[in-house]
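DM between two lab members

TW: hey, do you still have the BPTI/Kunitz inhibitor domain-containing protein entry open?
JB: yeah, one sec
JB: this one, 89 aa:
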Amino acid sequence: MKVIFLILLLALGAFALQHNAHDLGVYCEGGYQKGVGKHPRIYYYYDKNVKNCIQFVYFGSGGNKNRHETREKCQKACNVKVGTKVSTA
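TW: and the structure you got?
JB:
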């Protein structure tokens, strides 16, 4: 019985890790897409080249899921080390 429980626990853990990695891909890859619409707002997307969250204008509809309402939410969702600076050179 203990062996079965341990196997189920390990399987659940593996599923959770795989699911979390998939979520990071959906919300943190693909660049930004400004979307369409008539409601421009400032959002942040994760740029994998600079490994940080960058501001952009989102128009309210469409686009991908790599958009976050605040820099802090983007950094948390994409595991950005807080204090990471973006090079402007």
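TW: got it. The domain at 2-77 is CATH 4.10.410.10 (Factor Xa Inhibitor). The chain has one domain: 2-77.
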